[in-house]
User: Which sequence fits this backbone?
């Protein structure tokens, strides 16, 4: 990485316009490939750093982790707030397995005629 590239000035000076365009495109493609590789390396570096920070946190909080009887899952709550798992609430967007469907008759469309009650035993006020 410490080497400096010497552009082929003599070659480029003698090239046709078409050859210079191809040379330019090939260098831009190479830059794009390097950028993709760099992005992948950057993401890998961030993941490894996050895992190292998790390990450091676990080292520093080992006694508390061993005495904690709650779930060992990391909290997604903001610092200082209890996690949803501790509160016993489902995470946002989670569907309850006991979710009941609403009766469409209870929510008539505006301007629609009143629904005829098909169940005579049902007491509607």
Assistant:
């Amino acid at each position: 990485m410490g080497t400096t590239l010497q552009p082929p000035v003599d070659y480029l000076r003698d090239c046709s316009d078409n050859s210079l365009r191809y040379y330019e495109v090939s260098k831009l493609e190479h830059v794009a490939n390097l950028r993709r590789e760099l992005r992948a390396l950057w993401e890998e570096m961030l993941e490894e750093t996050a895992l190292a920070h998790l390990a450091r946190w676990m080292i520093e909080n080992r006694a508390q982790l061993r005495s904690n009887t709650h779930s060992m899952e990391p909290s997604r709550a903001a610092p200082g707030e209890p996690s949803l798992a501790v509160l016993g609430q489902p995470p946002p967007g989670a569907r309850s397995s006991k979710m009941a469907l609403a009766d469409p008759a209870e929510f008539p469309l505006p301007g629609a005629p009143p629904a005829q009650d098909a169940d005579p035993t049902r007491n509607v006020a």
